[in-house]
Write a structure and sequence with these properties.
By secondary structure, the protein is an alpha/beta fold. The protein is 47% helix and 18% strand. It has 24 helices and 20 strands. The protein has an 8-stranded mixed barrel, surrounded by 5 helices. Strands 2-1-3-4-5 form a 5-stranded parallel beta sheet, with helices on both faces. A 5-stranded mixed beta sheet has the order 7-8-6-9-10, sandwiched between helices. The chain is globular. It starts with a helix and ends with a helix. The structure holds ligand C2E and magnesium ion (2 copies). One magnesium ion binds next to loops.
Length: 613
């Protein structure tokens, strides 16, 4: 590495001509740039679009060392070009600078998100730009050199292709898929990542030896790649983004497939089945005895974006964790990523059928987790959390079945039931003398989008004789993003009724502060992810403090979720948080235990996680 660095520094001293491509913008821009940059080191070439940059780069006398994209005259187009360039195989190592209008920091943010390396802001200043370009050239050279050295050490070809199969290796795969992912988000498509895992490959390798097993890998690589494109082409529905499909090799006997558009839910199942059928028929692989062929099956793990993750590293980690999960799936099958990974694709079908029965059989239960006033240490309310007492699987937490319920349309029914039960329960607490108690329930976006949502709430309150201010509805940020107009109207209806609203899991979703003040919410619930960092992680403390301060400025009450120890509680108290809930005080408990907690009063009564487990 040091040798590489020395070499770069040495070459820095020689004045080399640097070719800069300028994409989009007015034709006069190149002249203007040349004019204001008094140094002759940079040679500007004007291109009308990013698309030509890739082709041009091979014929240009000097390959571009920097690309400037003008997003000041046409922002959308500029952003699209940044994405295009970031994903271009040949321009992978060329930094992209986006040029934006004065003070257009939004454009800067979007461009960086889209893959730009740096930005320049109008009005153009000669010296500033020259320095910016110079720094970028140096950084890039240095980075490229380091990368070459690192690649050489792992035996990977410098172009990022796997030597055996010719498919992109992990690094290149990730970069290309990331690009496809960005495009998919931009076009609001659901993308998928598949990990194809060969079964028993190690055993086959020991039996057949290196050469024959390498043949199998090569053959499998080809089979998977062909299968994906064939499936794509023969499906009559128009899929978008064929060019963005990426098939790569990942580890010894694993392959990754990035699919930029999953069409309907069923299509991705069909694709997985199609690949599995092909891979499990290695007839064409010469030199493989037929009894061994029977062993050559595969498994597929699937994760969807943006549902399961928004960047490629997260998605790869998802499928990897599935593949190496202790509860291994059967040979020749595929399954989808779920957060708990308890729901395999097969069990899921069973769950669907059972869930609707469970509702009617009374197997659903509600546990309540106390919310505590930080200042007084006394219980101020409780969150209702649904549970499913499954006859064989035991007590299931929502993660295991809420998603299924949403898919099969049972979520509204479950949600209505939770709403009614929780209101009745809270009214009972009031009658028992705890009239300060408030009950919070979680509302799925599906539920919220129904027309008669405010009516259902009114009905539940009336039936239970519960004052509206004792009911808190917890919604998540995703809800707000989906249908702003409708959401705002419903929120306002509820608000007028006197019901309180809380924004759940704050900080984990889109976290755009800009809409917060326009929502009629009363409470913000800081997600457990931030609380976990307290008080030892300086960054975590800073973020939590900022959230609390902002919420205060907007006049919102703040609840911290997932408080597990005294240190976290102290820190939150110092930061001015109002309420907390978490295992430190109590896990979610059945209503009967909740009564005991209420009876005992405050902090002394807390049930620690240990004593309940
Ligand atoms: P949530 O609303 O953020 O609920 C808090 C979750 O954090 C609960 O998980 C709770 O058991 C857990 N928790 C509380 N304190 C601690 C702690 O100190 N440490 C840790 N590690 N975890 C803690 P649970 O009950 O599994 O619920 C998960 C999610 O399921 C809830 O997240 C909520 O979004 C959803 N959910 C629960 N009940 C319903 C429901 O009736 N309807 C709908 N639509 N969603 C529900
Ligand atoms: Mg909640
Ligand atoms: Mg939460």
């Amino acid at each position: 590495l040091l040798a590489g660095a020395a070499q770069i520094l040495e070459s820095e001293n020689k004045i080399t001509l640097v070719s800069v491509f300028v994409c989009g913008g007015q034709v006069g821009l190149v002249g203007k740039l040349g004019e204001i940059l008094s140094v002759d080191r940079f040679q500007f070439v004007h291109l009308d679009s990013a698309a030509t940059a890739s082709a041009k780069h091979r014929e240009a006398p000097y390959a571009p060392r920097i690309i400037i994209v003008d997003a000041s005259s046409d922002k959308q187009r500029g952003l699209a070009e940044c994405i295009e360039l970031a994903g271009d195989l040949y321009l992978q190592d060329v930094p992209v600078i986006v040029m934006v209008d004065e003070d257009d920091f939004d454009a800067v943010e979007q461009a960086l998100e889209a893959g730009a390396t740096d930005f320049i802001m109008k009005p153009l200043s000669g010296r500033g730009i020259a320095q910016r370009l110079e720094v970028l050239v140096r950084h890039t050279e240095f980075r490229n050199q380091l990368r070459q050295t690192a690649l050489a050490a792992t035996g990977q070809a410098a172009d990022g292709l796997d030597v055996l199969t010719g498919l992109p290796a992990a690094g290149l795969f990730a970069r290309r898929a990331e690009f496809g992912l960005k495009k998919a988000f931009l076009q609001k498509r659901v993308a998928a990542l598949l990990l194809v895992n060969l079964d028993h490959f190690r055993r086959v390798k020991t039996i057949l030896g290196i050469d024959a097993s390498n043949d199998i890998l090569q053959q499998t690589a080809k089979t998977i790649e062909t299968a994906v494109f064939e499936f794509w082409d023969q499906t009559s529905r128009p899929f978008a983004g064929r060019d963005d499909i990426v098939v790569g090799r990942y580890g010894m006997d694993e392959f990754l497939v990035f699919v930029p558009d999953t069409g309907r839910a069923q299509d991705i199942d069909d694709l997985a089945t199609f690949i599995l059928a092909r891979v499990s028929k290695p007839e064409d692989t010469p030199g493989v005895p037929s009894d061994i062929k029977a062993y050559l099956t595969a498994r597929i793990s699937i994760t969807l974006a943006p549902k399961d993750g928004r960047d490629i590293d997260v998605l790869i980690r998802n499928v990897e964790s599935m593949a190496h999960h202790e509860d291994r799936q059967g040979r020749g099958s595929f399954r989808f990523y779920t957060k708990s990974m308890k729901t395999t694709a097969i069990r899921r079908f069973a769950l669907e059928a059972e869930l609707s029965q469970a509702m009617h059989r009374g197997d659903l239960k509600i546990h309540y987790q106390p919310e505590v006033d930080i200042r007084t240490g006394k219980i101020s309310g409780a969150e209702a959390l649904v549970r499913w007492q499954h006859p064989e699987l035991g007590l299931l937490v929502p993660e295991a079945f809420i998603a299924v319920a949403e898919d099969v349309g049972l979520i509204s029914e479950i949600g209505d039931w939770v709403l009614q039960q929780a209101c009745l329960q809270c009214a009972e607490w009031h009658r028992a003398g705890y009239d300060f108690m408030r009950v919070a329930i979680n509302i799925s976006p599906y539920q919220f989008s129904r027309l008669n949502m405010p009516d259902l709430v009114r009905r539940a309150l009336l039936d239970a004789q519960l004052p509206p201010q004792s009911l808190i509805l917890e919604v998540t940020e995703s809800l707000v993003i989906e249908d702003v107009e409708k959401t705002l109207t419903t929120m306002l209806d509820l608000k007028n009724m006197g019901v309180k609203l809380a924004l759940d899991d704050f900080g984990t979703g889109y976290s755009s502060l800009s809409y917060l003040h326009s929502l009629s919410i009363d409470y913000l619930k800081i997600d457990r992810a931030f609380v976990k960092e307290l008080p030892f992680h300086a960054g975590g403390v800073a973020v939590t403090e900022a959230i609390i301060r902002m919420a205060k400025a907007l006049g919102l009450g703040i609840t911290a979720e997932g408080v597990e120890n005294q240190e976290q509680l102290n820190c939150l108290r110092e930061l001015g948080c109002d309420y907390y809930q978490g295992y430190y005080f109590s896990q979610p408990v059945p209503a009967s235990q909740m009564a005991t907690l209420l009876h005992a009063g405050g902090i002394e009564s807390r049930v620690t996680g240990k004593s309940l487990k």
